[in-house]
Specification:
AB_hydrolase_1, 8-stranded mixed beta sheet, Pimeloyl-ACP methyl ester carboxylesterase, AB_hydrolase_fold, globular, Rossmann fold, alpha/beta, 272 residues
Length: 272
């Protein structure tokens, strides 16, 4: 069921003004929209058209600004397309579609067709990683590979993480800074990230559902190269447990356990 996600139009405008202000710092990226069955989708593209295509999908409660620290270097070797998930605090249509594999796969397929991409590599963070894996399972002939950074769908979230997230979010700026510090595993958090998170907490209804787990059979029969990356100190998932599951189910899946937390965006070293 689709539903509006911004609390007020004024709040939506504040978030989009912040987004536009940040985009001015990255003039190498071209802006466009693709019409999909799940809503009009905002796309940031960079790199030479003849470069191999790379599609990047952000996580829940975020937008393509999550990749801005990486897009310049990635665009030197790839034609990069960062896509805003409809129903998240970005520049795509501001209604949320259901968190089903069918819905997300249909959306990604519309993007791939709309951009006229031939077997792109797809990278995704958290919810975006789950969506990329789901698309690879349902459309293996349309993907060259997947790099999933701390994706949902491999193991269940840690007990109580959502309650702790709500608790910190209700404590104003101090709580948001504490939450981000945990997500970044104590690494310095850019002030732009703090400012965006404060805006989103005030003006946006976050996604509360958890996407489904992938079955052993689905992961065993995966026909697309998959790289799974997770932090040892991930706030949301037990990365070690996820790696053990994947290694046992399908040794062909490349796994990496980093020293970082959940806020992973550097995929360059894992490019297939």
């Amino acid at each position: 069921m689709s539903r509006a996600v911004f609390k007020t139009e004024e709040g939506k405008d504040q978030i989009l003004r912040f987004y536009d202000g940040m985009l001015k710092k990255y003039p190498i990226a071209n802006q466009s929209h693709i019409d999909t069955e799940q809503g009009r989708t905002f796309v940031l593209s960079a790199g030479e058209p003849e470069n191999p295509p790379l599609v990047l999908i952000h996580g829940s409660g975020s937008n393509s600004l999550a990749w801005m620290g990486e897009i310049e270097k990635l665009s030197q070797t790839h034609r990069v397309h960062c896509i805003d998930i409809p129903g998240e605090p970005g520049k795509s249509e501001s209604v949320r579609f259901d968190s089903t594999r069918e819905a997300f796969s249909l959306w990604i397929d519309d993007i791939v067709k709309g951009l006229k991409l031939k077997k792109p590599l797809i990278g995704g963070l958290s919810l975006g990683g789950w969506a990329a894996i789901a698309y690879a399972i349902s459309h293996p002939d349309k993907v060259s590979g997947v790099i999933a950074l701390a994706p949902t769908g491999i193991v269940k979230p840690k007990t109580g993480f959502l309650i702790r997230t709500i608790f910190y979010s209700m404590r104003g700026e101090k709580g948001i800074r504490k939450l981000l510090s945990i997500m970044f595993d104590g690494e310095p958090v850019p002030e732009e990230v703090v400012e965006f998170q404060l805006l989103a907490t005030r003006h946006f209804h976050f996604r509360m559902d958890t996407p489904s787990l992938f079955t052993d059979r689905e992961l065993q029969n995966l026909k697309v190269p998959l790289t799974y990356v997770c932090g040892k100190e991930d706030y949301v998932f037990d990365g070690s447990k996820a790696v053990r599951r994947l290694n046992k189910i399908n040794p062909a899946i490349r796994t990496a356990l980093t020293d970082k937390g959940h806020a992973l965006t550097d995929i360059r070293e894992f490019l297939l």
